[in-house]
Recover the amino acids of this structure.
């Protein structure tokens, strides 16, 4: 027998504990159907009374144990909390110099991700992100945050009625940012649509916010405005005129696109540092008075911009290096385009849409007018007109290394005839529909010629394939899964195999081949490996296909990418 005692006060915790079960008074009756005699029944009743008494005693002991256990658990949690608090006192973070903490803060996100995607400027006034969060943690952090001007240099101002609090926050950010360069974004959220200047009387606060920002125009480094197209807004910013000497990046977007004409924006007229300009289709270059000779980066999109205005913009920017355009071909567009000389242009991203009654051959004059001899990267997205129109452009761009073509409705022969003139290409991305997929890949896979000069894209080292109208490429299985047709997968693998194993003098071996694949893309890796194994076993005297296969998922659950990389 044993007895339990408390280790603290040595008090007895329980009664004695027996190590053996009580013996039954009638063990002979177990396993039979016989009933007990009167003497045996009396012994059984006495036995049950004894057991029930012991059960009550054990239950009482259990309650004692539970009470002691609860007390010990509570004491343990208090000690753990006490230890955790003291362990935090030894954290290296508490020994950081304020200057180091300030440097860390200067690299922190400047706010919460914003729903409106204007220049990807975060929501700087969000109370649970960015500088407002860091200034609420503790006194040392608050002191470091307040004395770190770079932390307060991003300001995203959403114009709403009754915005007294935002006026206060705006003043706070401007004062704490000292004399540092500012990144500002002004976004219209008034929902007044086309009420004009008369509809602004009920919204007095946002104009005062614009005037406050204008007083700090000498610190604007990057500025993005998404405003209704009314002169009253630019009048509120008029104090900025002649003060934007630091401005390097500018974006202008009119939120009320129903107006055919916007205001003339002249507050940036004397700027000499502006290098990057972004506009939407509601803003005309003729309405924007800026020094265009220094601009090297330009975006003109959202929604599509008439082609004539795109031409006007490009001709007015002689030192352009990086250009993104979304062009709209209209029936009224001119059939002749004067030459566009852009000797410094290195990157061109252009999408072409067609308006009602527009002729499909109209972009030809635009392609012929482009004189961009030093272009190294070109991305084209177009629908339903012949790609042969740009073949002359490729002949003039001898430095073109990277080419992306997403061309819906083009004939395979026309597409092949076009890209064969881009002989210096090392990286190619193609958006293909089902009818052209097999023929284009078959032509790219052809390496039977004896001379590299006869091969299609002899310097190609990287290729990406984007299926257009993906339903034409899919097999819908009985189990509900969706997979890329094995015919298309096989054509892609054969092309990659041919270009990665070619043994022709003067031709570059393909390093990577990537295929954008729909949902359930993991199965594609198995198919690729199976085809490669078959190719390796059918090629006598040669090593198996020297490639590694990777799969990566795309965000948003929209499938993934199957990537084949040549083993070196």
């Amino acid at each position: 027998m044993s007895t339990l005692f408390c280790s603290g006060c040595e008090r007895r915790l329980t009664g004695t504990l027996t190590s053996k079960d009580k013996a039954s008074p009638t063990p002979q009756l177990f396993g039979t159907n016989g009933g007990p005699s009167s003497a045996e029944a009396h012994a059984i009743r006495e036995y049950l009374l004894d057991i029930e008494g012991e059960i009550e005693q054990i239950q009482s002991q259990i309650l004692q144990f539970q009470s002691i256990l609860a007390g010990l658990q509570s004491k343990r949690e208090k000690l753990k909390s006490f230890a955790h608090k003291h362990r935090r006192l030894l954290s290296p973070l508490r020994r950081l110099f304020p200057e180091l903490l300030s440097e860390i803060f200067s690299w922190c996100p400047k706010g919460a991700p914003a729903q409106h995607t204007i220049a990807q400027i975060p929501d700087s006034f969000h109370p649970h992100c960015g500088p407002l969060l860091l200034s609420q943690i503790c006194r040392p952090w608050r002191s470091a945050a307040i004395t770190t001007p770079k932390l307060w240099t991003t300001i995203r101002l959403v114009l709403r009625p009754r915005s007294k609090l935002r006026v206060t926050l705006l003043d706070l950010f401007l004062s704490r940012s000292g004399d540092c360069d500012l990144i500002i974004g002004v976004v219209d959220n008034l929902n007044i649509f086309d009420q004009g200047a008369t509809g602004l009387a009920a919204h007095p606060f946002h104009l005062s916010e614009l005037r406050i920002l204008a007083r700090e125009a000498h610190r604007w480094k990057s500025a993005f405005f998404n405003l209704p197209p009314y002169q009253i807004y630019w009048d509120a910013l008029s104090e900025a005129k002649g003060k934007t000497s630091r401005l390097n990046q500018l974006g202008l977007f009119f939120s009320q696109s129903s107006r055919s004409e916007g205001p003339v924006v002249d507050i940036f007229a004397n700027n000499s540092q502006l290098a990057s300009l972004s506009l939407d289709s509601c803003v005309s270059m003729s309405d924007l008075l800026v020094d265009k000779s220094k601009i090297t980066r330009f975006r003109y999109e959202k929604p599509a911009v008439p082609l004539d205005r795109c031409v006007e913009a490009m001709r007015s920017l002689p030192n352009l290096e990086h250009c993104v355009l979304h062009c709209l071909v209209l029936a009224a567009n001119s059939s002749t385009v004067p030459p566009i000389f852009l000797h410094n242009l290195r990157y061109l991203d252009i999408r072409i849409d067609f308006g009602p009654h527009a002729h499909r051959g109209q972009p030809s004059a635009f392609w012929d007018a482009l004189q961009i001899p030093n272009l190294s990267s070109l991305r084209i997205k177009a629908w339903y007109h012949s790609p042969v129109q740009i073949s002359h452009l490729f002949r003039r761009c001898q430095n073109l290394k990277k080419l992306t073509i997403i061309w819906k409705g083009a004939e395979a022969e026309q597409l092949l005839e076009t890209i064969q003139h881009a002989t210096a290409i090392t990286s190619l991305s193609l958006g293909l529909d089902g009818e052209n997929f097999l023929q284009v890949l078959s032509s790219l896979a052809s390496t039977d010629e004896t001379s590299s000069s006869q091969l299609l894209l002899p310097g190609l080292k990287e290729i990406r394939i984007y299926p257009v109208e993906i339903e034409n490429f899919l097999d819908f299985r009985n189990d509900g899964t969706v997979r890329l047709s094995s015919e298309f997968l096989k054509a892609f693998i054969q092309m990659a195999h041919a270009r990665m194993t070619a043994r022709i003098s003067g031709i570059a071996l393909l390093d990577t081949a990537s295929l954008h694949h729909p949902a359930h893309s993991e199965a594609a890796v198995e198919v690729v490996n199976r085809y490669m194994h078959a190719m390796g076993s059918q090629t006598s005297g040669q090593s198996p296909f020297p490639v590694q296969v990777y799969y990566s998922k795309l965000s948003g659950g929209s499938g993934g990418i199957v990537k084949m990389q040549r083993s070196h």
Q: What stands out?
A: Residues 192-198, 537-543 have pLDDT under 50 and may be disordered. The longest helix spans residues 38-89. The radius of gyration is 38 Å.
